Every structure is written in structure tokens, then in C-alpha cells.
Amino acid sequence: MIERVCALMLIGGLAACASKNAIVDTKGVDQARYQQDYSECEAYADQVSTGQAAAKSAGFGAVVSGAITAVLGGDSSAIARSAGAGAVGGGAGGALQGESEKGQVLRNCLRGRGYRVLN
Question: Looking at the record's lineage, which domain of life comes first (predicted)?
């Protein structure tokens, strides 16, 4: 039970680190137009599938961690725990990667519309 709580805290913490917000130099920018463009670019960014990346990475993490534990001579209980930890770590990493990609899409979209993106 404690392992699951720690895993959820890890995933939540990593998700909080990932942000798709863009910092734009708005000097001389029509704010109404900027808000419209930002909303449209954000909609494009939301098309990035973070769930699929997380699921693939979780599966990979589980297989690799379980296999390593098996090779090192772990019993079935240790293999299961290791695979679970690998799945959590892999899933969190995949979700973080997906969120990072969303941020990149947002920034690229705004740059394409002529804004000076600072991050």
C-alpha cells in the first residue's frame, strides 16, 4: 500500500514539473488577438496523446525491471515488485515526455504566428 502511495506521489510530482505554458513577450501585442491565438495553439497542443506514451513506457519499464530482477535471481515476489516499480517509473516518464511535447507544440505554434516566445 505504501509503495502505491509513493508511486502516485511520484507521478503527481513529475506531472507538476511538466508545463505546456509558454512565456511570450507581449510588448506591443494586441492582447485580444494574443488570447485568441494562444487558445487555438493550446488546442493543437492538447491533441498530443500523453496517455499512449505513458502506457507504452509503463509496459517497457515493467518488462525491463522484471527481467533484470529475474536474471539477478529474484524470487517471483521480487520480480513482481520490480516490474510494478518499473511500470510506475516508466509510466511517469512517458507522461512527462508527452507533456513536454505538448509544451513544444504550443511554443512552435505561437512562434509560427509571429510571437516572440521566451521559453
Answer: Bacteria
Owning domain of residue 57: 2-112
Say how far apart CA 102 and CA 87 lie, in whole Å.
22
Which triple of cell numbers denotes residue 23? 512565456
**Structural domain includes residue 119:** no
Give 10-residue mean pLDDT values along the chain (119 residues): 47 52 94 96 87 54 57 61 57 61 94 96
What is the distance between the alpha carbons of residues 1 and 23, in angstroms, rounded to a whole number? 40
Domain count, the chain: 1
Q: Which of 14, 17, 21 is nearest to 54 (CA)?
A: 14
The three three-digit cell numbers of residue 43, written as one number: 488546442
